[in-house]
Description:
Helix content: 25-40%
Amino acid sequence: MSTITRGIGAAAAVALLGLSLAACASSGEEAGSSESAAPLAAVDGGSLVYASDVQPITGGLDPYLASAFANMNATVQIYEPLLAKDADGTIIPWLAESWEQVDDLTYTFTLRDGVTFSDGSPLTVEDVIFSIESMRASAAGAANFATLGEVTALDDSTVQITTVAPDATLINVLAYRGSAIVSKAWYEAATEEERQQTAMGTGPFVLDTWTDQVSMTFTANESYWGEAPSVDTLEFDFIGDENARAAQLRQGSGTDMAWFRDPTQVSSLEEEGYTVGQNAATRSLTMYINATDGPLADVKVRQAVSKAMDRQALIDFAMGGLAEPSLVVPAGDPWGIEPDESTPNYTHDVDGAKALLAEAGETSPTIQLTYASDAAFALDVPMVEVLQQQLAEAGITLELVGKPWTEVLQSYIGGTWTDLLLVPGVYQPDPASYFSTVLTPGLPMATTVTAESPEVALYMQLRSTFDEAERAEILAQLETAVAENVNVLVAYTGPQRYEVWGDTVTGYEVDPYTYREGLAATAKTS
């Protein structure tokens, strides 16, 4: 994660990662031009309104139940991790003011003085220990904390973490915005429903109201330990339809910012003078495989499906060319590796797919693909429809089953889907994390491997190797092995969202990985 930290390297985040940030100037000058219109002056306080597509879904605001992108975009305004990452990916202090790796298995963290939760209670080592243990026990965090040993307090401000094996991912995971530290007393006292519908963290905002399917309103945390938010209130309005969201922004009747998936919609707004910020290409169209039974239990059928896919055609026809070919680690992640003609089963080859099906004795298999049919996922539908046509050329019948996103997510978590399940990916804290759910034997999603699988051995090697050059070599081997065994299918990768705003706000810095952390430093101009 390249966190837009409040007061720490924020302005460099976009430039260093090569992201486009267009200027909002009626003159049409390029971003950074000395002739561009100067931004309007900030005013104190006010309400910042951001039109979004989806409200938090399953798990609500409980950081140990809520792993979906829609949930984390709300929880990161309230909860914070021990560490963070600066614009260049360097680990920096956050709730922990310092840390030390004592040896390959031991780490210590010293908590920052003066940090309180929004109710005024102090952050303690007991809160940190409880939070990390809760992450380990959660379905969403179990894979990231697979090597966790003991979490103990050395004194009133120092926490020690041990691992049962060397784990190069641990510090990255603790710097992930999803690794939230909660108040032990509050979390244990709250009911399951209360933890999902209300929240109490150390972050810059406090949840005020949540009107189901309408909006969420946050107020500035008066006891925040860092730089106070520039606005008094932050409101997320939930508008699933892209055209309706654009209309709301254009009306100028209170909506300051919005985000979109449709690049053509964004182009129109940019031409009208709105500022556009593009997030990193970390939204992979990933299809998870259930190989417990059915045609996909045979690796040759999985390989045939991959060969039958014309990924560039999917990009061209479904995304108008505005996406990138990708392996498991998305193209927009600094660790991403670009696929090429040497990538196993990646090049479009209908004859090769038919030959593999013949070898498997499955010349005309029927495979089911389940995908989210909600309005917010409408731009994914052309991809699955084009894919259906592509697989038909190889003799594969692809049955498309649209379901609400909440059902899709529950199927994924429980490993209960049939054949293929489309779950768009999000940025992960470490390159190994992208593989964790499909290469950790015993998890419901890991149906294509056993503990003896070579991909699992490479995955564990990637997790346990600290040297970055060595990690890069292992990652390349792992990507090749996964492509060979087809443990998962990736169609392409594009930006999570395009963010758009007008001249009623100033100071916003795009978070490349789409957590909207820059909202705390964003001010109104009127």
